[in-house]
Amino acid sequence: MIQAVLFEFDGVIAETREARRMALLDALEEDGLALSDDEYDERCAALPVRSAIRAAFSWRDITGDETRVDLAAVRAERAFARSADAGLSLMVGARGLIESLQGHTRLAIVSRAARRDIDATLSLAQLDQPEVADIILQLLDREALAQFEYYDRESDPQNPQFRKLNEQEQQRILINTMLGVRNFNVPEVREKLKYLAYNDPSPRVREAGIEIISATKTDVEIVP
To answer: What is the pLDDT of residues 170-205, one digit of tens each?
Structure first.
């Protein structure tokens, strides 16, 4: 029995690439930095917003403190939110797959996109069922991730199948989920973030966790 199915929001449920690209390029342009499409693809595509901005600044040797990065990130996130509010296109087959799975297993979305942006897209597509998005906080558990089945559309697009997550995919889900819940002022979530930041076997996950916690206002004491 399949316990849960995880969907990446970007590129699996919704077509977000162009909206993300335009949002980031417009935000960078306000800082006097213009990137070509090839430069964006090489340096920034698929990175979290702040990491993409840092990469662009570094690429053009632009000096800037974290405040400058944060301001550019806010502009990019607001621009992407406007695109989500206006409506993002669903990927081909996404609606049918989600509807066929609802009621048969738990569904969850994993993404660096803000919850409001995901909700806006699902609502406009009339897919705003509670079970689609409400268990995202359960994706911070290594043991649970090891049991999840992933609907793989990339390895063989003509014959997609469910399969277990590999280590790289688990790391991606953990990091994206941490980014997505970084501002959730829920003690259990803060404790899980702290645990991952200092105890996860992956250096990438630990580094991301420490950065996320350090950049987030929280009352939870951070002790390794």
So the answer is: 888 888 777 766 666 667 777 888 899 999 999 989
Q: How far is CA 217 from CA 39, 116, 182, 208, 212, in A?
A: 34, 20, 9, 16, 10
Q: What is the spatial distance between Cα 17 and Cα 89, in angstroms, rounded to a whole number?
A: 11
Domains within the chain, CATH numbers bracketed: 4-14+90-214 (no CATH), 17-86 (1.10.150)
* Per-residue pLDDT reduced to its tens digit, 32-91: 899 988 889 888 887 888 889 999 998 888 776 778 888 888 899 888 888 888 888 888
Rounded Cα distance between 14 and 103, Å, is: 21
Structure tokens at 111: 């993404």
Whether the Cβ atoms of residue 152 and residue 160 lie closer than 8 Å to each other:
yes
